[in-house]
Amino acid sequence: MAAGGGKTSVGIHSAWDANLNWSRNRISIMSDQRLARVEIVRTVNGAVGLGLTNQIDSVSLQATVKVAEAAARMNASRAPEIENTYPGNKPLTPFIWDDTTAQQSGSERGEIVGGIIERAEAEGVVSAGFSQTGVRTRATMNSRDLVLYYAARTVTQLSTTMRDWKQKGSGWAGSSSYTWRRIDATAIATTAIEKCIQSRNPVAVEPGRYLTILEPQATGQLLRGLFQFPAVMRMRHEEGKLFWHDRMVQEPYGEHLLDYGRSKMGQRVMDPKVSIRQLPMHPDLGTWPYNDPEDPYREVTWIENGIFMNLAAQRDYVADRLNRSGGLMYNETLAMDGGDSSIEEMIATTKRGLLVTRFSQRGTNITQFEGYTRDGLWLIENGKISKAIKNFRMWDSALFIFNDVLMVGPAVPIFSPETPVIVPPIKVREVNFVSLADAV
After folding, report:
1. Whether the Cβ atoms of residue 343 and residue 217 lie closer than 8 Å to each other
2. How many Å apart are CA 197 and CA 127, to the nearest integer?
3. What is the pLDDT of residues 349-358, one digit of tens each?
4. In 97, 247, 278, 335, which residue has its Cα 20 to 30 A from 418's Cα atom?
5. pTM here?
């Protein structure tokens, strides 16, 4: 269907999801969704155009090819395409598939959720939550080397919120993985119920800057807000640009890991206790082995002992600006090195501070995090949890928070569907809580 030479790449993506929602201790929705998408990329004399369709008949595919060719003509001013500079560097084979998960039935999911609801009713609380099991597939081939790249993955998640019937307490717990065998529904229900009961009847305390212990979910939310895709792209740093809300902002962005367009690579940007990596072959961090099969994901250390070590870059940018082959792609999974301090030890060594379960948001931009504590916030006094307190609105810089880490616990997988994250609980010198929040 394609004409005019150049290269044609075809990607076929499919997804199947079985979802189950429940609220007020009753299952409300069970759904089954199936999606398919075809991506056609035409590259002619360095200009690249993309066409998308969810129809696979010949007429629709021909129309999509024409869309891709028209887009390539509009991008004809681009620099010549960089050839594949490292043929044979095949994608890794991460841990992303589980037969048991792919074959899980709706009745099995219903029984699991039914067990959670029964636990909630026995404890006199009301539960709501979401369960999902899905399969994703991706196949890619181009007209240049005619090599088929194929990957399939299973995804699953389970989360629940428990509330006091009088709306005086709230608890949450969740887990996600590529395999259901790593999701402990009983532990999730127990944790959410315990947090709900322990957070009943919270009292108000003054907002301000508090020494804070962040449970792993809260730590992960801060990191994910900081390590958004644009934030780690080398091109954006070196050119002083930031991709944000689907548009290019042509301005210096000195607030993040930049100094008016110049990267801070090689400098300390976080506490020496902080090391953050991309580990595609870790059994709890598996995700797609590639976005572009000619530029597969690899193991990367982004921050080592607080030092900013690497920025992501596509192979064409690396070849053009750094005169070397191969890219360094970011797959949005994160692994922060853990320590040997337990949350109990962190609490015991705290004269006055807070224990945070999680936040309601990830952040408003790359450097500033705005959100609300939720599902369990406690005041620590003289080495013990003294009382449940009302939620706070938090406004602070994740960079500031990670620059003064006092203690680090063991790293564990957190609830982060599609893009896995492994992080520890941490104790930090202070977090800025600016006001009270009425929500439970």
Report:
1. no
2. 13
3. 999 999 999 9
4. 247
5. 0.88
Question: 423 to each of 46, 78, 223, 336, 406, how far by Cα in Å?
Answer: 41, 40, 9, 5, 15
For tokens 């609801």, name the residue. Answer: 117
| Residue 254 confidence (pLDDT) | 37
| Cα 440–Cα 224–Cα 277 angle in degrees, nearest 5 | 140
Residue 429 Cα to chain centre, angstroms: 25
Q: What tens digit of pLDDT does each residue of 416-427 get? A: 999 999 999 999
What is the per-residue DSSP string for 339-392? -S--HHHHHHT-SEEEEEEEES-S-SSSSEEEEEEEEEEEEEETTEEEEEB--E
pLDDT-based confidence at residue 258 (cuts at 50, 70, 90) = very low
With cut-offs at 50, 70 and 90, classify the pLDDT of residue 86. Answer: very low
Among 1.10.60.30, 3.40.47.10, 3.30.420.40, 3.30.2290.10, name the CATH number for the domain at 7-197. Answer: 3.30.2290.10
